[in-house]
Amino acid sequence: MLLLKRAFLAVFILCLLFVVSCSSDDDNNDEQQQTFTPDGMKLIPAGGQSLQMGSESGFDNEQPVHTVSFENDFWMDSTEITQQEYDNLMSAHYGDYTTPIWNNPYGAGDGYPAYQLYWGDAVLFCNARSAAEGFDSVYTYSSINGIPGNLCELNEVSADFTKSGYRLPTEAEWEFACRGGTTTDLYWGVDYDPYPATSSDTAEVSDYAVWYTNSFELGGDASAFGSQQVASKLPNAYGLYDMAGNLYEWCHDWYGLYTADALTDPTGPESGEWHSLRGGSWGSDVRYLRSTNRTFSVPDYLYYFIGFRTVVPAQ
Asked: Are 179 and 145 in contact (CB under 8 A)?
């Protein structure tokens, strides 16, 4: 009887140790998932959420408002890609890369956003970042026209969204991230028109955005003219800086008109002439800083106004 009790006790202890070990493994797995934090990025809690995308009070290309749902979370750069980040990565991955022309008065320096870029340049950056961090590239292409990373165009581009690597945000992802959980025109909780109606309203816009009044309007001789260093203004609720103003940002999607259809993880039209731009710039009035505003080109100094940020799926 004593031997039987001892055997039972031994089996009980082994079972207990097994349960503790499995629990520890689960904790380690959870910890590994929680500690996957890409440098300089914020986790956007989109998984299982939906967005009423567009605006009935905005421009025609923001209509109709339609429901967009997301299956998964994703990471997004907290700032626009800086000149230092861009130059360091592109020079390491493309042997014939040359640095774009970044100079004053449009903003020049390590902490300033990278501009003077075509959509293809941003795609090459995404692939280089994927390679540098051991992820599968999302984008493939047949050839490059021009200098890689310096106003180049890519031929026969395709994107595989099942890959784990870096890419440009879709318009839907961009708008969800920009809103930061708000439903107002501007992500700091106010609606456009009659806002900004007072000097305090204008000052509030300047707290969050590099825009026409605190940049372009000042003229080329002013130190604040042009783009400004990233994260120099207040972030939105998700910790993202400069989602309004500073630079327009390339999105993945071909530009196209909306429909009323409810969509899940849309990636835009299959083809087109221009890729979408979001966010407004240092030359934009407030109506172009709204979270729903979208365009495919900007006037005058076209590529002095355009940069980008990247996303990567939650691993």
From this structure: no
